[in-house]
Amino acid sequence: MTEETTFHHGDPKDQDRPIIEMKNIEKHFGRVIALAGVSFDVKPGECHCLLGDNGAGKSTFIKTMSGVHKPTAGEIFFEGKPMHFEDPRDAISAGIATVHQHLAMIPLMSVSRNFFMGNEPERTVAGIKFFDKKHADAVTMEEMRKMGINLRGPDQAVGTLSGGERQTVAIARAVHFGAKILILDEPTSALGVRQTSNVLATIDRVRKQGIGVVFISHNVRHALAVGDRFTVLNRGQTLGTAKRGEITPEELQDLMAGGQELAQLEGSLGGTV
Length: 273
Ligand SMILES: Nc1ncnc2c1ncn2[C@@H]1O[C@H](COP(=O)(O)OP(=O)(O)O)[C@@H](O)[C@H]1O
Ligand SMILES: [Mg+2]
Description:
Radius of gyration: 20 Å
GO molecular function: ATP binding; ATP hydrolysis activity
Helix content: 25-40%
Protein name: Monosaccharide ABC transporter ATP-binding protein (CUT2 family)
CATH architecture of the domain at 12-105 and 178-268: 3-Layer(aba) Sandwich
Bound molecules: adenosine-5'-diphosphate, magnesium ion
Low-confidence stretches: 1-10
CATH class of the domain at 12-105 and 178-268: Alpha Beta
Largest sheet: 6 strands, mixed
InterPro entries: AAA+_ATPase, ABC_carbohydrate_import_ATPase, ABC_transporter-like_ATP-bd, P-loop_NTPase
Strand content: 25-35%
Mean pLDDT: 87
Keywords: ATP-binding, Nucleotide-binding
Distance between the termini: 56 Å
CATH topology of the domain at 12-105 and 178-268: Rossmann fold
Number of strands: 12
Shape: globular
CATH superfamily of the domain at 12-105 and 178-268: P-loop containing nucleotide triphosphate hydrolases
Domain ABC transporter: 20-260
Structural class: alpha/beta
């Protein structure tokens, strides 16, 4: 049997084959070694959390995954084949979508207009192309409804939505335009409790559609609420990957803080951290 027939669509083994596999990724900026050999993969329908303190290399790593940076060394396999992204467009057309904390959206423009920004549906009337507003509006309302957000109407301005709802618009947009891997860079770090739980619920919905989610956070509780696997980065290196249930919040927190440093801090504060 060939690889192809072993992993035909719907085969339970499909679930175990990563969509993307990053092997021993290094990234140097001159003499700064931002990544010193990081391996990470994402399977369909899982939420793989990437945790680490400021400067650990999280953003550099996902920029390598999304075609913004070329790795200095290491290999990327996408759906089992070696992949070289020349620029972010290559990664986007392969199905790797990134939602940044600071979203690229225009607050005064409608949700529908933002949803289709750069992907405007066109309708041709008498040889002239028009933005197909009716179609865009209907799709936007439906996609947002599926994500649990009932817009007042498609013309509602993005600026009137809460931070969590805007994140959801960006996520719904990525899903609608065919993301296989959805990278979320600190989507909850600027949100309050309720907004955070809405975004975590959105991540859960997306994952259940078979999309692989990369969730970057430095909040252990947010990660544990939705994560299937947890990889901790520290100064450009992986401290390890744990599965849900294999690690306690305390252990994860400790790893993230670099273990030792936290122990020292606890010591100096009399064990109150
Ligand atoms: N374009 C760059 N040029 C030089 N150094 C960089 C660049 N991008 C990131 N770095 C360095 O790489 C390290 C990791 O940064 P980053 O990936 O942003 O970490 P994180 O997202 O985990 O906070 C830091 O020391 C940072 O200063
Ligand atoms: Mg960062």
